[in-house]
Automatic annotation (TrEMBL):
GO molecular function, one term: metal ion binding
Organism: Actinacidiphila glaucinigra
UniProt-listed InterPro entries: ADP-ribosylglycohydrolase, Ribosyl_crysJ1, Ribosyl_crysJ1_sf
Protein name: ADP-ribosylglycohydrolase
Annotated SUPFAM superfamilies: ADP-ribosylglycohydrolase
Amino acid sequence: MTQRGERAAGAIVGSAVGDALGAPFEFGPEGAFSVRFPEPGAGGEMCGGGGWDPGEATDDTQMAVLVADSLLERGALELPDVFARFVRWAAADPKDIGLQTEVVLTSGDPWNLAAALHFQTHHRAAGNGALMRAAPAAVHFAGHGRTASLDAARRIAALTHGDRAAWEGSAILHDLVRVALDGGDPVAPAVVADALAQVPEPFHERWAAVLAPDWHPGLATEFNGAVWPCLGSAVWAVRTTGGFEAALRAAVDLGGDTDTVAAVTGTLAGAAYGLAAVPGRWTAALHVPMPGSPGRVLRLADLVALSARLTGD
Ligand SMILES: [Mg+2]
């Protein structure tokens, strides 16, 4: 595997690992993970609970796989096809689905209107539900150049999230992953500032706050199910630790929307450190059942193969 391929696989597997690691701790208190697993590296962390089997990935990874499937089968970004896959998945009764995502996908409205109509009625549409599924598209479009990557990020986010703030979150994450795949440090202050510079007004200020080099999750003004503190926390977790495992522990320890914060952290940390940095005792149990595709369960090798096809490696 090339270094670039190793980092791409790190992003995709890292995201799924974070999702599965965080799922049992969703809506739990701060520090719950460290209380249960005080010693890093001791094992048993992929523990399951809260309705999840050990290593079972949730809607975050399932939706990411749907995006990957569409890109690979259609050979291009076909938004109606991605949306149709989301709708079929939502109708297959997944164990979990984001509140906002569910309303949009079960509305019966067409792909290019459903999220916008939801935003018009509900006004709150800046959840982290597009960010959580960004890894495959981020990896795929990284090779297509910056403009194409930012554009794809925004358009895929817009399928379920009417608030442009959520689109910009996906765009920033795509940009950081692109830098990481090229061998750069995705959380270096200059890199984060450069990604931030791609965010248009009037969205810039709020993103600048959570991506400031001295920001930490204690400064969050919303629950981390919102897009800003979710990405801010992921960047913080990678910036303030020295490796994949430590970053993921820090993310899950934040409590709240732990599966998604850890999935986004895993995307970034995996892209930065590569697949080899993802603990084998975490990937061993990892599995992604796909509602709507009876019997289909992706494991480590399937995710690595998916990554190779997405990057053309
Ligand atoms: Mg989830």
